[in-house]
Design a protein that fits this description.
The structure holds four protein chains of four kinds. Chain A is α/β, with parallel strands linked by helices. Chain A is built from 13 helices and twelve strands. Chain A folds into two domains: about 220 residues, Rossmann fold; about 150 residues, Response regulator (Rossmann fold), CATH 3.40.50.2300. In chain A, helix 2 packs across helix 12 and helix 12 crosses helix 13. Chain A starts with 8 loop residues before the first helix and ends with a strand. Chain C is about 75% helix and about 5% strand. Chain C has twelve helices and two strands, in the order ααααββαααααααα. In chain C, strand 1 and strand 2 form a beta hairpin. Chain C starts with a helix and ends in a 14-residue tail after the last helix. Chain D is globular and about 55 Å long. Chain D has one domain: Orthogonal Bundle (ABC transporter involved in vitamin B12 uptake, BtuC). Chain D has 15 helices and four strands. In chain D, a hairpin with a 2-residue loop joins strand 2 and strand 3. In chain D, the strands form two sheets. Chain D has a two-stranded antiparallel ribbon. The chains are: A alpha/beta, B alpha/beta, C mainly alpha, D mainly alpha. Chains A and D meet through helix 1, helix 2, strand 2, helix 3 and helix 4 of A and helix 2, helix 3, helix 8, strand 4 and helix 14 of D.
Chain lengths: ~400, ~300, ~300, ~350
């Protein structure tokens, strides 16, 4: 009797191992009833370097959910939004993900908020599969083999660079500089961009790494002046750095044309910069896969959302929704489409079937989000358009057609 | 009834006179008591008791010495009076200190300086990377309204060697000069009370004699009251008016210099006078016992 | 491809940023000398100063004041607010620990980094902001050499303030009091120096110079609650200078600014951030007391 | 202030657990830990596992900072070294976990000793700054050695496999990591009954005096660095197997500060300090999130305040504990039990 209770360390280990064997692996998974609502969970960078984009995105996303629910939700069921702050820290996003996944009603879709998270979550997704999209356009994710449950709601950064390079080529540009932030996001397409530029016969004369925020502009301007490119692509920034670099270059009397990628193409930032420091952003151009919100005439989806916001907020609604929010909403639109397709095909709504439906999206009319019909290839949508900023009216206006790669 | 009380008071007064006349020494000096310490208890780190109910008082114009061996609590007493115990993680748990009629509690060290208390610490503690003049400026910091240029000159007059080296870094002065600087710093602004902690420490015998001459000069010329802490009892007896002897945090003997000098215990323990022909441990046993009793 | 003008340009940029590093480092040294506390939170204090300035200037801009009035009013207000911040930190965080081992105090300054960053993010949101620069960005050309007028003026201002403060430190009575306190706190108290007053004063000076550095730095970079990281890399300046030497800081700031700039010139932008720390490690191993520091201060 | 060791005989001084209630509490705790996975959700188990990883790391920091008095601001980076060592060994050499983990521990402890080398010349503040610099340098290497560390995008690992069971579910990870955490606490507890541990304490309290009485401080300081780093290595290794993917940004300075905060709040130089500390730093963000959850219906973007509030609260806790309770929660805990133990005669 006495011996039985003598739990020393070794027997503790042995017993716990035995217990583990008995319970942890043996408990059958509980078969759950169909959920009452679609839980769509996501992390938002409400704090940290991209907080401005995150909080704006969250507000618009919640409005989008409200609108969608008011028109019947997805396949007759309402959407239940679950969200948490990640501070743009991948491990915090991952904790949020785990929290969402261990809740009683599991999400059918998870919206991640950074490339780092998309990377961290990959092994986790193999264990608890769920359809996963997000704000990352990392080229690495566009591979159904290594990242079977993740998709990109737009072109990869590589494709964006392809589009920009084609644009430069068509304008007859010869000398090009890459200026990018010292982040995963910034470094992502550089290698591809260099080789692509080479194949198009464009000379990449400078690859300049900067801090993602608070970069020392003068140093970079100096290098840019030395290299003196005709075009410079700014990549890997959201709110900061890119306007200062353009401003610095203009002050240094440079005539280099600057091009940006999606996250650095926000009208709100461009307007604020113009208001504060003058109209030097004139002619700044860049690639974006989505229409701007003020092009609502060509986009029925935008029109619907505009009407909803107008009725909800009245005069408080400024009439513009940021591209960041549009990106998040479009990601959810795709998830919504995948769920609808799965339900219509009368299949169980699980990650595997959702991915199948996702991959089956071909020539879908996105309701104006994108100009060309949407086809998902390699879990990404490779199209975009080059827009250029006009300081006189504060609008990004298209200077190219919709380009697919 | 009223009469009865009045008579009681009268009796009381009479008794006082009577006792004072017969048992106590008659009050010789009618000078005011400048510093009064009563029942002082000090702890370090809240656990080590350094002073156990120390009481003493100093009259205006006197030189009073606090004698005792290492670790008896002399410096602690001075630190408590000047309120810098907090820098050594010590605190006063009980007791009262009155300086010039008001309590010192609640006044920070620098405020006490303004009230006329100065302290020359053991080991001089000059600001070694400031110049001589800057040392004096630092000392006059709190007294900037009252200190005049000629206060500096007064110090340089008193300590001639300093005058020629006023622009030099104090750390390069000799030991004696550093002690002079320490004195000079304390004398800026003519303090009422000067506390001194072992001014003779680490100086050549010639210097010691000189330092003590300066002390008595300060006392006479500037009419500064001095509380001196010393280990060197002979010197203390030579220069003081009144002596307190402190052992293990308690005052064990006190008295005027001439009286104490007659005391056999004091002679034996502190002045090194007495029967030196001890042959065995038994001979000095009484000594140990006596000393224990004293403390 | 060797391009001498490019090299000169980058060297000048490095030296200019050295001027601001000196101003930041000054605060760290001041506090260290007076209180023996190494203030890891100095960068965060600087960031707070920049936010104060942002707030005051935004308020004034909203009233439509002219530029010169904005500077004239919001600068003194910022300095007052920063001084208050310094006093509060000293009074409530440092004073209760007076006379103790410096390690807990250093831990408190590390905690202070989190507190200030969190507070700034809660008050002013974590999004990057662009406060109105004291000197707007302008690039002048000397031949083909480009000089950033904003940095030049910031540099001149930083150096002027640095020199004023360090001359006061040597010449003024308060300077003597601070130096006396640095040598021996309790003796200084016995000389009639108000030691806690000196502590307050050194914190105030550090916070005010820090806020000025923040105001100069924020438009060059952008203003986010993590601006304080720049302050962390200034550790290298302070260590190279010798931790308690004001002249040392000035020299070290130029060296570090220049070396950083050269690292970014020859190896690429990302090396700039790591250079200060490599320098720190090397100095600590080779010459712990830095260029001009007191030799015996290797004890915590 | 601890001023003595109140043991009355050698046996009690040498004993592993203080007394029978201590031993009983330990057994009870172990039982409770076995039960936890069966009564809580996956997220709670995940949090427990994370606490366990933190505990291991903080025990290492406790040896270095708490017991030996060498304040390190680079512990987070060392955890990163452990994690990367594990991931690289697995991806490059395809080693099994039972070789991989010890090897990672060894590598990390070598790195730790290397960055402890300045301690031969310097002490105190300078040492703290050198660990800070080391932390930045390590992270820089992790971020920029693309071919080996995968740069900013980090590395992905395969899960551990024991007897054909993949340690991938939350439960399995829990049962793999928590026992290791308990073992490492016990090992550290044991360390301070030995010559080495006491030498560490001697170095902390008075390094010169320790040298004079014959403690080889160079050797023991390096040993403290090595041991502290070894714990960091184990924590990093488990961290990698717990997340199965690692990024350099996870191990930056904020992690080191988090560990220090945990140690201070938990109670440095005490066995239970790291345990309380780790629980604290994991639970506080959860509590804040929970509190913010109540407020979100009012304003969905109120969550913007969660992360700053988090960092604010950590900072405040460090400061408050340093000023009012420098020995941390562990000391409150032991005071509480002393009080209970002596009741009704307790003061």
């Amino acid at each position: 009797m006495k011996k039985k209770f003598n739990l020393n360390r070794r027997s503790f280990l042995k017993n716990s191992a035995a217990l583990t064997g008995a319970f942890a692996f043996g408990v059958p998974s509980i078969i759950r009833a169909e959920p009452k609502s679609w839980v769509m969970a996501s992390s938002f960078p409400l704090t940290g370097p991209f907080a401005a984009a995150g909080s704006m995105g969250l507000k618009d996303y919640l409005d989008w959910v409200e609108m969608t629910n008011s028109t019947g939700g997805i396949a007759g069921k309402k959407i239940k939004p679950v969200y948490d702050d990640s501070a743009y820290v991948p491990s915090k996003s991952l904790a949020n993900f785990k929290k969402a996944m261990s809740a009683d009603d599991k999400p059918v879709f998870y919206g991640g908020d950074s490339t780092g998270f998309m990377k961290l979550v990959t092994p986790e997704l193999n264990r608890t599969p769920v359809l996963c999209g997000g704000t990352s356009f990392s080229s690495e994710l566009a591979d159904p083999k290594t990242h079977p449950y993740q998709f990109i709601s737009g072109p990869t950064y590589n494709s964006m660079f392809d589009i920009l390079l084609q644009h430069i080529k068509s304008k007859g540009g010869k000398k090009l500089a890459f200026i990018y932030s010292d982040t995963e996001f910034g470094k992502d397409p550089i290698e591809h961009g260099v080789s692509k530029a080479k194949s198009l016969g464009i000379d990449v004369v400078l690859k300049e790494i900067t801090k993602p925020a608070g970069a020392e502009i003068m140093t970079h301007i100096s290098s840019l002046r030395r290299a003196d490119p005709e075009y410079a692509i700014l990549h890997g920034y959201v709110t900061g750095v890119w306007p200062q670099i353009i401003g610095g270059a203009r002050k240094a009397k440079m005539s280099t044309k600057f091009l940006g990628t999606f996250w650095g193409m926000e009208k709100i930032i461009a307007d604020a910069v113009t208001k504060q420091s003058g109209p030097f952003l004139e002619g700044y151009a860049g690639v974006t896969p989505y229409r701007y919100f003020y092009e609502a005439k060509e986009a029925p989806s935008y029109g619907k959302f505009f009407a909803f916001l107008k009725s909800k907020y009245g005069d408080e609604f400024p009439g513009y929704v940021s591209t960041w929010s549009v990106q998040i909403m479009f990601t959810y639109e795709i998830a919504k489409l995948a769920i609808e397709k799965t339900v219509n095909a009368d299949k169980e709504v699980n990650a595997k079937n959702l991915v199948e439906s996702l991959e089956a999206i071909k020539n879908w009319d996105s309701g104006g989000y994108m100009g060309k019909p949407v086809s998902i290839e390699n879990h990404a949508i490779a199209q975009g358009r080059v827009y250029s900023y006009k300081t006189s009216n504060g609008l990004f206006l298209p200077i190219s057609d919709w380009i697919t790669t | 009834m009223v009469f009865f009380f009045l008579s009681l008071i009268g009796l009381q007064l009479k008794l006082d006179n009577f006792c004072g006349g017969v048992f106590l020494a008659p009050p010789q000096k009618d000078r005011l008591i400048l510093l009064k310490v009563s029942n002082l208890n000090v702890y370090y780190h809240r656990v080590i008791q350094a002073l156990r109910g120390v009481s003493f008082e100093i009259s205006d114009g006197e030189i009073v010495s606090l004698l005792g061996s290492n670790g008896a609590g002399k410096s602690t007493a001075l630190n408590a009076i000047s309120n810098i115990l907090s820098f050594q993680n010590g605190e006063i748990s009980e007791g009262k200190i009155e300086f010039n009629g008001t309590t010192t509690f609640g006044k920070s060290a620098n405020n006490l300086v303004k009230l006329g208390m100065a302290y020359v610490r053991e080991g001089r503690k000059i600001f070694s990377d400031l110049t001589v003049n800057e040392n004096l400026i630092a000392a006059s910091y709190a007294l900037k309204k009252t200190v005049k240029k000629n206060d500096f000159e007064q110090v340089y007059d008193l300590f001639k060697p300093l005058a020629s080296r006023r622009k030099e870094i104090a750390g390069y002065l000799s030991g004696g000069e550093q002690q002079m600087l320490a004195f000079g710093r304390a004398l800026i602004g003519n303090p009422k009370l000067l506390l001194m902690d072992e001014p003779s420490l680490g100086l050549a015998p010639v210097m010691v004699e000189e330092i003590f001459n300066i002390i008595s000069k300060i006392n006479k010329d500037l009419n500064t009251t001095i509380l001196l802490v010393e280990q060197n009892a002979n010197l203390a007896f030579k220069f003081s008016d009144y002596i307190y002897i402190i052992e293990s945090g308690k005052i064990v003997i006190e008295g005027k210099v001439d009286k104490l000098q007659q005391d056999s215990d004091v002679q034996e323990f502190y002045l090194g006078v007495g029967n030196k022909n001890y042959k065995s441990y038994r001979d000095i046993k009484h000594y140990k016992r006596r000393k224990r009793w004293l403390s | 491809m060797f391009d001498p003008i490019f090299l000169i340009e980058n060297s000048i940029t490095g030296l200019f940023s050295g001027g601001i590093y000196a101003l930041i480092g000054l605060g760290v040294v001041f506090i260290f000398r007076a209180t023996k506390v190494f203030n890891f939170a100095h960068g965060a204090v600087m960031m707070f100063g920049a936010y104060f300035y942002l707030t005051f200037s935004e308020i004034l801009i909203s009233f439509g004041s002219p530029n010169w009035l904005i500077f004239l009013i919001s600068l003194p207000l910022t300095f007052t607010a920063s001084a208050l911040l310094g006093m509060i930190i000293e009074k409530f965080l440092m004073r209760p620990m007076m006379g103790q081992h410096p390690f807990p105090l250093i831990m408190i300054t590390i905690g202070l980094i989190s507190v200030l960053e969190g507070a700034a993010a809660m008050i002013w949101t974590p999004a990057a902001q662009y406060p109105k620069p004291l000197f707007p960005l302008n690039i002048d050309f000397i031949g083909s050499l480009a000089i950033n007028r904003q940095m030049l003026f910031s540099f001149i201002l930083a150096i002027i303030i640095f020199l004023i403060i360090s001359i006061l430190f040597v010449r003024s009575r308060s300077g003597v009091a601070i130096r006396a306190t640095a040598t021996d706190q309790s003796t200084a108290a016995l000389m009639g120096i108000n030691v806690s007053g000196v502590f307050s004063l050194s914190w105030i000076i550090a916070c005010v110079t820090g806020s000025l550095a923040g105001i100069l730095l924020a438009p060059l970079n952008s203003l986010t609650p993590t601006l304080g990281i720049v302050g962390l890399s200034v550790i290298s300046v302070v260590i190279l200078g010798g931790l308690d030497s004001i002249i040392g800081v000035l020299i070290a700031a130029f060296i570090i600014g220049w070396v950083e700039s050269m690292a970014s010139h020859f190896f690429g932008g990302q090396y700039k951030e790591i250079v200060p720390y490599i320098i720190v490690l090397l100095i600590i191993i080779i010459k712990p007391h830095g260029l001009m520091g007191t030799r015996q201060i290797d004890r915590l | 202030m601890i001023i003595g060791n109140y043991k009355s005989n050698y046996n009690s001084d040498e004993s592993f657990f203080g007394d029978w209630p201590n031993k009983f509490a330990f057994i009870l705790l172990c039982l409770l830990l076995v039960l936890i996975p069966f009564i809580s959700s996956g997220y709670v188990i995940f949090l427990f596992t994370q606490v366990a990883v933190f505990i291991i790391a903080i025990v290492g920091l406790n040896i270095l900072t708490g017991y030996t008095g060498l304040v390190s601001l680079g512990h987070g980076a060392l955890v990163g070294v452990g994690a990367y060592a594990t991931a690289i060994l697995q991806s490059q050499f395809n080693l099994d976990f039972y070789i991989n983990i010890p090897l990672s521990i060894f590598i990390t402890s070598l790195v730790g000793v290397f960055f402890g080398l300045p301690s031969l010349r310097i002490r105190g503040l300078y040492l703290t700054i050198s660990t800070l610099a080391a932390s930045f340098i390590i992270i820089f290497i992790l971020r920029n050695w693309n071919s080996l560390t995968g740069g900013d995008s980090g590395l992905i690992l395969d899960p551990i496999e024991i007897f054909g069971i993949k340690i991938i579910s939350e439960n399995n990870k829990y049962f793999f990591i928590v026992p290791l955490a308990i073992l490492s606490i016990l090992f550290a507890q044991n360390l301070f009954r030995t010559r080495i541990g006491r030498a560490f304490i001697a170095i902390r309290d008075a390094d010169l005096s320790a040298e004079i009485i014959g403690v080889n401080i160079v050797k023991f300081k390096l040993m403290a660095f090595g041991l502290g780093a070894a714990y960091a290595g184990l924590a990093g290794s488990l961290w990698a197997y717990n997340f199965l993917a690692i990024l350099p940004s996870q191990f930056e300075l904020h992690l080191s500060i988090l560990f220090l905060a945990a140690l201070v709040v938990g109670g440095s130089a005490q066995t239970l300090g790291p345990v309380f500390g780790a629980f604290f730093v994991v639970i506080i963000p959860e509590l804040l999130k929970w509190a913010m959850g109540f407020l979100t219906p009012l304003n969905p973007t109120i969550m913007e305040y969660t992360a700053p509030a988090n960092s604010f609260v950590y900072g405040i806790l460090i400061i408050v504990f340093m000023i009012f309770e420098p020995m941390g929660i562990a000391s409150i805990w032991s005071r509480f039990w002393n009080y209970v133990g002596r009741w009704p005669f307790s003061p």
